[in-house]
Amino acid sequence: MAVPVVPYARSHERIVRLCEAGGDSRTLRERLLGELRTAIGFDAYGFLLTDPETAVGCSPVADAPWPPELPRTTRLRYLTAANRWTTLDGVALLSRLPDPAGSRLWREVLRDHGVRDIASLVFKDRFGCWGHLDLYRRDRPFSAAEAACLARLTTPVTRALRRRQAETFVVRPPHARLPSPLALLLDPDLRVLAQTPATSACLSRLVPPGPGRPAVHACVYDVAAQLLAVEEGVDTHPPRSRLHLGDGLWLTLSAARIGGVLPSDRRHSIAVTLEETTPAERLALFARSFALSPREADVLDHLAKGGDSHTVAHRMSLSEHTVQDHLKSIFTKTSTNNRVMLLARALGA
Fold first, then answer.
1. pTM for the complete prediction?
2. How far apart, in whole angstroms, are the C-alpha atoms of residue 46 and residue 60?
3. pLDDT higher than 90, residue 341
C-alpha cells in the first residue's frame, strides 16, 4: 500500500486544528482518522472512548474486516496484556514486541486476517483515561518515524476528548429518562442469551443497528470482557463504564457473574445491567471532565450537598474567601456564572 508523502509536521498542525474545532466526539474521531489515513496510512482501526476512571471502553468508532467476531475480538482484546491501553504511556507497536504471538488478540484472530502490525495509542492525563486507538496494517510494520508522529498527537487529542465529554453535561429535558429494568444475560463467550424488552431500544440510541452491525452495542461486550480480565488477573479496574446516552443523560453499565467468580464457576452467565448514572458519579465525572483540581472537586461536592459558602468553608476548614476563590475558578473552567447553573449541569437536573 503506497502512502502519500505528507510532512508529519504539517499533518500535526492540521490535527491540532481539528482538536480545537467544534463538534462532538464521534465527529472529531472520524476527522482525526481521515487525517491519519492520509499522513500515515492503515487498513483498519478501532477508536474507543473510555470511562476516565475505569478505562473500560465505550462508544467505538471502528472499521475492521471481522465484524461478525465482535464478541470474540472484544473478549480477546481485554484478555491480552501485551500493549494493553491500561498499561501504555503514549504509543506501542505490536512489531516491537519480543514475540508478537504474546498478544492473544493477534495470535487468535488478527493474524488470520493478515494483520502484520498494530499501532496502539492511549489518550490519558492526570484526570483519567479518555480513549484509546488501534491502527491495523497488513502490508508492513509501522516505522519509528510514524510512531513518533503518533506519539505527538496524544496530548492534543487527549485534551480534545476530555473537552468533548465535558460538553455533554447539560441540563436534561423532562423526557430524558431511562425505561427500566435494563439488563442483558451473556454466556462466557459474550454471546447474548437474553435481554429485557427495553434494552435494545435504549442501546439503539447510541448506534442504530444496521447491515453488518450487531443489535447489541459494543459497550455491553466491553464491560463484560472487563469482568473476564479481572477474573483472569489481567487488569484490576472494576467492570463498569459510564457513557453519555444523549440529552445530558448518562448511563452506567456494570457486569457481574451469575453464580460466582471462582474458576469453577466461570461456566455461569454474565449479567450486564444498565442504569442511569447516580448524581454522585455524575459529579465525579463532571469534575474530571472539566479538569477541576482535587480541592475544587471537594468544593463542588459540598455545594451539591447543600449549603452556602459559609457552610462549605466550615465543612472544609477553609476561609470563606478561599472558598470564593475556588468557586471563581470552577465557574471559569465550566463556563458557568452562578451556583444554580453549575449544579444543574453537573447533576443534570
1. 0.90
2. 7
3. yes
